[in-house]
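seq as requested:
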Amino acid sequence: MPTPPGPRFGLGSIVKHRDFGRGRVVAYDDDRYVIVFPGGNARSVAFSFEGMQSDGDPGDPDLDRITQAVRHVLGDHGWLDVDLELGKRWVGGTLRLVPGRDDAPPKDIPIEVFLKKLIGVRDKLRVLEQKLNGHASLTAEEKLELQGYITRCYGSLTTFNVLFGNRASWFVGQGEKEG
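struct tokens:
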């Protein structure tokens, strides 16, 4: 019995689908990609589907799996630290929230504290993605719909990418790289 094909495109890759146009690979499971197309329209596409090609860098699915595994192990042992992800220009900086009323004082938050909370949100979204994609009782359509919400959450958080020192740590929404 032949081995089923594995993924050809990595996470975040832009692909061109014969019927749906350009989209971004946001997840994959054992035999299918989850691709978000313009307007948040998410589709499940089999790895074996021939009517799709890369529209730029195809990424590296094997590297995606290794990266996720290493990040998971390092995080479990406390070896990943916010200081490794914070851009050098922000070290020691402060985020100041200034109210619109004169009678309320501003609130200062160390950027390291803010970024740590942001990384916590990002990591929890990643776990949610993994659990969603591996969920046994959800239909493919339900998974796609929920994956679309997660992708839009990432998109909402792209404003904070300026804080990260490494582009690999950035939040990536469905519109990234497609402009």
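The helical segments are 61-76, 82-85, 111-134, 140-156.
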